[in-house]
Every structure is written in structure tokens, then in C-alpha cells.
Fold this sequence. Notes:
The protein is an alpha/beta fold. It has one domain (10-239): 3-Layer(aba) Sandwich (Rossmann fold). It has helices at 19-30, 42-52, 66-80, 103-131, 143-146, 152-172, 190-193, 197-205, 215-226, and strands at 10-14, 34-39, 56-60, 85-88, 134-139, 177-184, 237-240.
Amino acid sequence: MTGGLLSGRAAVVTGAAQGIGLAIARSxxxxxxxxxxxxxxxxxxxxxxxxLGGAVLPLACDVTDEESMDTVLxxxxxxxxxxxxxxxxxxxxxxxxxxxxxxxxxxxxxxxxLKGTWxxxxxxxxxxxxxxxxxxxxxxxxxGKSGNPGQTNYSAAKAGIVGLTKAAAKELAxxxxxxxxxxxxxxxxxxxxxxxxxxxxxxxxxVPMKRAGEPDEVAGAVLFLASDLSSYMTGxxxxxxxxxxx
Length: 246
């Protein structure tokens, strides 16, 4: 696509092989962006990139590894000539009650979500501040706002991403780099499809709009924050939850 809100810009989306990440990559690409689809599973990233067509770059990356993240962003700039949008979306779950959760499962979730986001923000902002512009979008969750039983690791990581977003936004605003976050609620993804059906139904019933959201609805909020439509917004946290927890 030659026109669109992101025409001529280059974007990186982590966790882009499926679910919300793929929906985000698809949305940015449809609005003219050249997109690097980044995922731990490089083969699945390649399959997702083939679906989008031209002006895409599938890359394998462990977001918890500093060198891996730096390499991905360097490859993106080499391929596309710039880095204008960076979306930290990669995530995992290791749910268990506080009593049963292992230290390893706590650390794994914190590493992917919080450390991975921090590494992404740091690496992307180093490139963007030199260019004097750029938009970074971090994926938090309503679990980080309210806390979910069985998710002390996930809720803590997602709350931490809000603090990271606001601190980074204050550091980078004078360099023309914006940092914002999105907090999805109950969204239909492979991750939520793994929930017991009765638990999913109970949570869906608690949403004022009486339905779960779709990945494309989260992608719309990310597109807004990535584009110039949100040019005077930084440090903001957009909730995409059908009114849940408002």
C-alpha cells in the first residue's frame, strides 16, 4: 500500500506471529508501514509475513536477550532505512496461585513482559532519539490495573509496564519520541482460548459491552498511537476492554 496513516514508515512488532501481535502488524502494514514481524518462533513469523505480502521482514528474536533485540532493530533499519514505530507486544503466561507458582514461572513472565519491554524501549529509543521522532507502544493489560487471581506474575509485569511507559515518556519527550501503552481486557486470542470455558464466560459476563474483544480492536488503538493522529500524546494508557474496570 502506498498511502495510509503510516505511509513510508518502518515498524517493528514483537510477538507478531499470531493473535494480537499479528493483528497489529497487519493493521500497520495496511496503513502503509513496512513491518518487521518479530517472534521467538522465526518460522511462524515467516508464515505470518507471507500472509501480509510485500514490505515485510520476518525475524526471530528472544526479547529477553539484549543482543537479540539490538540485532533485530539493526536489521530493520538496514532493510527499511528507518525505525519509526516500535510495538512491544511479546508475552507469555504461567498462571498459578501464589501458593503454587514457582520462582521460575514468576521470573519467566517478568522477563518476557517487563524486561523484554524495557529492552525494546531502550533499543528503539536509542535509534529514534537520533532521528528526532518516533512512536513506541507498549502492551500492558487490565490485569495490571486490577490484578487477577492466579496471575501475580502477569499482573505485576503488566503494572510495571505502565510505570516504565510513563518514566520513559518523560525521558524521551524532548527528543520527539513518544511512548504510550495499551491495556487490553478480555480479547479472543489463542491465550484466552486456553482458559476453561466457564471462566471465560464468567469474565465475559462482567464486561459492560457483554462480549469479548477481537485482536483487530486492540490493533486499532495501537495504530492510533503509532500514527500522527496521536501526535500530542505521550505517557498515555488506553484501555481496550469494553468498559471493564472503568
